[in-house]
Every structure is written in structure tokens, then in C-alpha cells.
Records
---
Amino acid sequence: MKNKLGGRFWLALTIFSLMGQVAWVVENMYFNVFIYKMFNASAADISVMVTASAVTATLTTIFMGALSDKIGKRKLFICSGYILWGVSIFSFVLLKEDVIGKTFAFAGSAAATYISLTIILDCVMTFFGSTANDAAFNAWLTDSASGKNRGAAEGINAMMPLVSILVVFGGFMFFDLNKADSWSLIYTIIGVLVTAVGVLGFFIIDEPKVQSTNGSYLEGIVYGFLPKTVAKNKKLYVSLLAFIIFNISIQIFMPYLIIYYEVTLGMKDYVLIMAPAIIVASVITAVWGKVYDKRGYSFSGLIALICLIIGYAVLFLTRATLPVFIGSLLMMSGYLCGMAVFGAFIRDNIPEGMAGRFQGVRICSQVLIPGIVGPAIGKKILENAQTIIGNDGTASFVPNANIFLAAGIAAIFVLPLLIKAKIKEK
């Protein structure tokens, strides 16, 4: 049991988790806004992009996680991955008419071509990001923290998505997202920062003692999906099932959240309104990891899930600024606290020395299945959504509050699994 972690660990955890989540927030929440505003993307286009990214992230994590186990190295994959991740983000600067128009002859709609190129570049970026973050960084965190500090470390890791949202929201306030030049500057800044963090990692990350595996690389790839592995680790796989449903709930509404705030609710200053909610939810999430350490999986998981469901209900039923703020605070707190609980419990139940090969199973639960099912449900919910005509004469869909109703219904199905776990604990 590693009960004490040094300052270098906490520094590396904070910097790499934060910068990785900033990059993921730009992809998961603002790539949708990018193609929506720049190329009038439809809900179907957004669903395709989310699904393609989810598949890429999963395959990358499975293969690269097993490879990091086989080699017995985490630091190399993390640092080099972050450097290339940053370069791939910067490449989005090239998605401009004066660059693409000279390279590609448009056979059909120019907007459709740009959307397709965005999806392709998104998958390239996801490959490097998943290698660095989903596979190597998460395996490093599993190797480095255990015992009484697992929840505390996971609490810091789980709060970073909200902190990164705050950072991105705050930074994006200074840009007019209706202008292509603003997006070019955004991609330049994020790309340079992610690359710089990758270089810094060579100096601050301590390589955990991980012995290279004796089995074949192919065995490492499929290990987490074998029936015998499931039979040996039933507690782990039941929690992964709950994690799948939890993340499906999140992916039903998350791709449309910013568009919902800005277009549907008309909250042009949504950043100022949401910032306090994000700050409070981040503090709660950091503390909630310690609640997991003291009270266990089922208690901390049930409270987080109930908070999430209540947040959904408030967002579904209200439109005014104050109740939307309250609903968003409850939703964000439940979401990130739930991520901390599931993340810590899953890491606690991964067999020692096998963190890399189990990252593929984890990413299937967190990204692949939810990334396919969740957006598909959201797309179905929004099939008959209201449309608006922009100044250029093109039509855009308007997300409605039914996405929160659907997300809440999905979240309810997690309750029996957590209640069953509580009964077993007793």
C-alpha cells in the first residue's frame, strides 16, 4: 500500500490531468460548437463526430495500453503523446477556406467537406490524446496511487474536467466564436500549451516500477475482454456495467450543452453564470474523493447519482437563470463526484501490474459504448427539434430540454447496481 505520495506526484497529477482535460473539453464541448457555427452542422453530423472519436479513443487505448504494459513504461508514452497531441490540435488552424480551398476540389457542399475534414482531424487528435491520457496517464495514476490515498488522488483527477471547463469558458469569453480567426487562435494556444506540458513531463514525472509483461502483446490486448478475466474480477465488471450506464446518461446531453445554454436559453453570458457553479462543483468533487476513502463505493456513489438525477430534473423543468444555475450545479457535482467514485473503485479492483491492459476495458465503459449509444439517443430525441434560420439563410436545430429527461431516465438504471453493491457491503 502506497499511503504517502510526494510533491512531484501531486504536481504531475495536477498539471497533466488539467491540461489533458482542457484539450478534451475543447474537443468534446467546443468541436461541436465549431462545426455548428462555422459549417452549420446538424445533430446527425455531431453524432457522427462523437461516435468516430469514441471508437478511435477506445481502439487506441486498448492497443497502446497493452503496449505500455508490454514495454513496462508509462512516462515515454505520456510525454511523447502529449507533445504529438498538441501538434495535432494546432493542425486545426489549417481548416480555413484559403488553405483547404486550394488543396481540395469540392465535389459537393463545401461545408460538408469541412465537416468531414474536422471529423478526420478529430480522430487523429484523439489517437494521440488517448495514447497519452487515456492509456498511459491513467495507467500511471493506477500504478502510482493506491490504498488510503486512492480516493484523494482520484478526487483531484475527477475535478479537473470541471476546472478545465472553467478555464476554457473563461478563456473563450475573449473570443468571438462566430469568426474563423478566433478558432485559429484558440487552436494555436491550446496546441502550444499541450505540447509544452509534454516536454515538462520528462522532468517532473516519476516512472513507476512496472515490470514488462511476459505474455504476448496480443494476449495483453484481449486480456480484459476474456470470460476468464471477467470471472476472476466480478466486482470490477459489475462496476464497469454501472459506469457504462452512467456515462450513457452523460453523453445524451453533453454534446449539446453549450448550444442549449446559448441558443435555446439565450444565455449569451452563460460563462459568467456557470463559473460559480463550476467552482463550487470542483471543490465538492475534490472533497468527495475523501468521502469515498472513508465511506466506500456504494454510499458515495448513491449520493452522487441522486444529486445528478435531481440536477437533470431541475434543468428539464426550468428556464430562468437562477434555477438553471442550481440545476447545473447539481448536475455537474453529481457527474464529477460520480466519476471520482467510479474511477477510484475501478482502479482499486484492477489487478496489480495490469493497469495498461485494463485501460481498454475502462475506455469501453467510459467512452466507446456511451459515445455511441448516448449521442444516438440524443439525436433521436432532437429529431423533431425546432429550427432557426441564420443570417446566411441556413437552418440550424435548437436543442430542447428533453435531452435532460432522457439522461435522467438512463441514470435511474444505475441505482439498482449501486443498491446491490451496498447490500453486499453490509
---
Amino acid sequence: MQKALELSDRLSDREKYLIQGAFYLKSEKTYDKALEALKKLIKLYPDNISGNNYLGILYSRLGEGDKAIEYYGAAIKNGTEDVVIFTNQAGVYLDLGLCDEAIEVCENYINNIGDSAHIRRYLALLYSYQGNYERALLEVDKAFSLIGDLWLNIRRKGDVYLFMGDWEKAEQEYSKLLDKEEIIAQGFNSMRMQSLDLLQGKFRDYKEKSKESVERLKSLGQPTWAMSMRSGLAYIERRLGNSEGALKELKKVWTIAIAEENSVFQKYKRFTLRNMGLVYLELNSMSEAQKTADRLKEMTEQAPNKKHIKDYYYLMGMIELKKRNYLKACEFIKKGLPLLTADSELNLVYTSSLGLAFYRAGNLEKAAEEYERLTTLNVGRFDYGDIYMKSFYMLGRIYEDISWNGKAIENYEKFLDLWKDADSGLTELKDAKERLAALKSQ
């Protein structure tokens, strides 16, 4: 792409601006140049499908969903049959919480262009987010009928079972990924098996799988996978109470992330700084946590997508929570929540933390409201399934505090059933058992 950019002046305006737009899309620091080139292209050639698609991608990254939908729509209107452009547009609708509109885009492709396994898989994901698992499985089966047991079909079927809570069937599907030659299929086997461990409270198994994955990835030269796996390892070290180990892993992620300037690496820089700040809080190093928050604020303010400031708001909320300034904690977290896309895994994290802040502030009604909302979220169960499960434990605590013993017992029992195979010795597990026994003995 660098060579193409260097030689682009030899080409027509159409190809020159398209190459410039594609090249400058690689890094957040050059989004302004990408926008300039692509706007020139569309002014000259408004029906250019690739140019409209790239503008859709760019505005999506800038957090301007309405404009992204507009440009993807222009590409579709001008006759594209590229299935990815359709799911790109559907993805923006999903970001905005408009799942029905996303489904409509996918059905538009099937009705007007033809059937597609790619579309069927995406529909399966959308129906899973809506909790319509029967329809989701039907869409996956249609994908299998079109192209057989492609690894993407297998992964999606496992995903539907994961959302359903049928972890045995999910594991059966994910295990099939190991039989595939594609490295990415084997990578997703590791990631999804770890997701199942988180959901079931099997933190030690998760850690072992993470370490194995990190070792396997060392020889593959895949930095984004390495960042993902080490971030997961840092997360589980925190869950096991090893904050020093978590910080060590996050510093390795940071070293990888600063080596490149593309948008994926920029995302990991922000993600890693936020998590480092959380670890410093666990280590009771308030000064380091605040320094990290200040660095994160500076980084997010420089980002072209101003909604990234949500990461700073969240970390500041957790700093205030640590200081026992509960109302300030709520204010910060509430500022960040609306800036998340509707399908962001972090919805679980933010909602749980807001519920905790309300709980510690003594606002039990608001705390219950947030944790009840959390139990309805399907997004987030891949990366933060443990938070989803512990919401039932927290609801038990809240309802016990307000003497709604029937609801407390119901939530404790659900939590203990879901974590019946969890690691022994987990604090929440022991506490839930003791509280449930005391409530039942009354």
C-alpha cells in the first residue's frame, strides 16, 4: 500500500483518491487525510461503490453512525453485491441499538440479491442478541446448508449455544474448530473455550488455557492475537487476586501496542491504559492510578473519535469508587455508558460497576435496577461472562438487604446453580452458600 501511494500520482483521480483513502484509513492519525481524499473521490464520482464503503468505514470509526449508514446505503443503492458492505451497514445499526433495522438490511440482501452464508451467520448473531435462539439456530443451519462445515459456521453455532446457556453443546461445537487447518479457527477455539470457563467460574482452567495460547502464538507472528491473549491472561490474573501478575502481562501488551500506529493498536493502547489503572487501584497505588487516568485522558482527547473519552470516565469512576466518593463514581460511569456502542462487550463492565457504586452509596433501588438490566444483556458474555454471572450474586445481596428474602433466595440459588462447577474457594461462592443457608433457616 505504501508503494501504491507513492505511485498514485500516475493514476486517474478515481484510483488515486481511492488508494489514498484506503492507505490513510490505516491509522487514526491520518483519518483527516483519508476523509479529504475520499470526499474528493465522491465529489467526482458519487456512484463509486468502494469510495462510499470506505467513507462508511471511516465515519463508523469516528463514531458518527448516521453518516456511516448514509454512505453504506449509497454503495448499496449504486448496485453493490458485496455482502460485507451490507453487514457493515447492519453493524452500524447494531451499534446504535437498532437490531430490527440491522435484520432488515440482511433480509434485503437475501430477497434482492441472493442467499449467503455470511448473511445467515450475521442474522444468527442478531437474533441471539434479541434472545430469539430458535431463529438463530435456524439461520446457522441455513449457513451450513449453503457452504457446509466452514469454521465460521461452526463458531457461530457454538456462539448461539453459549448465549442459550447450553455450555455443553457450545463446547462440542468449539472443539470442532481444532480439526480445521486455519490458524484463526484454532485461535477462536482457545478464545471461546476461555469464554466458557469465565461463564462457569473456572478461572484456573482459563489461566492454563491462556498460558498455552500465548506460548502457541509466539511462533506465529500475530501481534493482535498476542495482545488479545495476554490481555485475557491479565484479566484472569486479576480475578485470581494476582494484581502484580496482571500488571506484568499488561506491560507486555503495551510494548506490542506501541510498536504500530494502525487503528487496532491505538485501540489496545487505550484499553491497556484503562486496565493498568484498574490494577493500580487493586494495588492501592492511587497516585499511579491517577497518573494513568491523566495519560488516558490525553490520549482519548487526541483521538478522532471523541467518544473514546468513555474509557477515561470509567477509570475515573473506579478511582472515585476506591476513594468511597460514591456519588462522583456514579456520575463518571454514567457519563461513559451512553458513549458505548450497543453491542460493546464493555456494557457489562460499566453497568456492573455502576450497580456496585449505587450499592455502596446505599441506593439499593438503583443498584437493583442496574444489576437487573445487566442480566438481560447478551453482549459481553464472551469477554466478561463472570461479571454476568456474579450479577445474580449481587442481586441476592441487594434483595437480602431490603428484606425481600424470596427474591434474594431466588438469585442466590440461580448463581450457585450456574457456578456449580466453579473453582472452589471463590469468595462470592462461599458467601452465597452461607447467606442462602441462613435465609432458608429463618
---
Amino acid sequence: MRTDPHQDSHSERGALRGEHPGRAADPVIKVVDLAWLEFVKPDLDRAERFARDFGFAVTVRTPDELRLRGALPGTDCLRVRGGPRPGFAGPVFQAAASADLDRLARATGGVVQDVDGGGRRVTARTPSGLEVGVVHGAPAYGGLELQPPLGLNTGGLVTRTNAGQRPPRAPATVERLGHVVLSTRVFRRDLDWFLEHLGLIVSDFLHLDGQRERGPTMAFLRCDRGAEPADHHTLALHLGPHLGYVHSAYQVADLDALAAGGEYLKERGYRRSWGIGRHIQGSQIFDYWRDPDRLLLEHFTDGDLFDASVEPGWAAMSSSGLAQWGPPATADFLGSRPSPALLRDAVAALRGDTEIDIPRLLALAKAMSA
């Protein structure tokens, strides 16, 4: 196992013999980023109000659709269509070239289709049934006015004199979509699908305490851009009784934008799920909020960037291992609060063709309370 400059006291980097290498030898394509996420919402007026309070800019608003963007140049961050129940329709990744769509379609049995508004896409399903889109040529917007980070006086470094700091209590300007976290009952099968079909590579693995020999149960995956650094994770995937969306994350300028934006959200009556703190894997400063449909969204700033040379880290999964500092992870964030829905998901996972059994289910519950 090699020593890596990113190694820290919370994890070890590099795979032991027989452990998962964290990347495919010859993936079908290599996506370069997330394009957008797709949701269904029953009340688009309410969804738009939250979106503006959270810091998005609106690009399209019709009776049946809401599209949202960040301030940096790029595609939409979110595409929301009207529907009877709130839910997550799936992530859409960006392909590096149009020919990648044809290769992916041949490998998955998908069909290349035109995208409303421009571009082409392929839609495929992972072994668990998660719907995943890959797009190329979708229109990109120019940049909007950014929220400038505040100048800080730190130690002996003075950047500000004869001036006070007065960050506005206003929506934190969302700059871009950073990542999405998904839960699956067939973690290893879905993980390998993302590595083999989309060319994602693992930044960090988490395993259950005392069960490392059974392999990882969570992975933070980044885009393989070669020597160009990429976000520590564009997708995080973990084993659990629930199938689908966990949360999504959106970059803001700095800690002051995140904190002042959080005060604005609190004044507007929204519910903080967990924060403010700093993660271990990825290092982001985070603040998690529930939207009116109880979907979880994160403001983040100051995340890690890795190039393709960095090998996977390994660490034990625990709720206390989610943050370097900050308040303890809440039951709301962890999804560990007992409920009929959680019980139904657990029973379904145990009865189905999944990677969850009684020892793993108990270990997952223990990890989320550790």
C-alpha cells in the first residue's frame, strides 16, 4: 500500500490484495460531470419559492416545468416537472463527446434521443433499477453575478483594514450542482455499473465495523478527468434498505455565504436537518436543509479536488465519522428515526434479491448510532 499525500488519520489509501480497486480497467465511457438532477413536484409554485430562497436562479417556468441553475456558466442544476407526488426521477451526467452516447447506448440497450431544448441523451438503468441519464450538447448558460467571498484576516495575513465585515442575510447564491447521494440495496452491483459504464472512480470507501472482509458499503465517486482535478465526489452511493435519492449538494461562495444564507432560510421557516460542520471524506463545510416536500439539499463550500492518480481511501462507517467538527449528525439526516416506511423498506430489503441480511442491517443501524 503506497503512501499518499491526501492520507489522513481518518482513512488509509490504496487497496489491499483482494479488495475493490475502485475503478474499471476499461469503462464504456468517462463522464465529465453531473449535468442536472430531475425531480417531480406536486406544487411548482411552492418549489419555486424554496428554490429562490435556497439561492437558485430560475431559467424556465411553465405550468408544468421548473428549471433551476447556478450562477457559474453551465447547464441547469435541476429540472422539475409537475406530478402527483414528490420524488426523484434520476441524475443526468455529462458526456465528453457525442460519440460516447452511441457507445453507451450499445452497451446498455438504450436509445439516443433528442433533449427538449437541445442536445441528445441516453437513459439507462442500474442493476437496482435506478434511472440514469447521460447527455451531450445541452445548452449551457453564461455566468451570472457571483456572491463575492469575504476577505479574511487570518493569523499574520491581513487582507482587510479600516473596514468591517457585514455579510448580507440573504439567499446564499448557488454557484453549481456539486454531487448527489443515492441509496441502493445492491451496492456492489450498482457500484460496478457506475464504474464500468460511466468511468467514475472511487475517492473513498466506507465499510461496516468488523465487516471489512465483506467489502465496502459506501463509496464516494469522482469523475476521471486524468490530470485535471475533479470534485472528491460527484456521486456518493451507499448500501441501505431504501432505494433512491438521499440528498444533493450545491456550492456557495464561502462559509459566510453558507451561514448567512442559513439564517435567511431559518427566518423563512425552513427546517435545518444538520449543520453547520465540516465533513471528513471530501472536507466540505456543509449545511443541510429540508425543502417543503422534505427532500434534503445541502449548501457546501471548500471541497477537496483529486486528480485520477489518487487511490481510494478506506475507513469504517459511523455517524461520528461523518464530520471533523460540528454538531452530532441528527436522526433526521441519518434517516434512522423509526417509522413505518423505514420498517417496510427493511423488510423488503431482507426478502428481496439484495446485498442486505440481518448482520448487515444490524451493523448499519449500529454505525448510524455510533
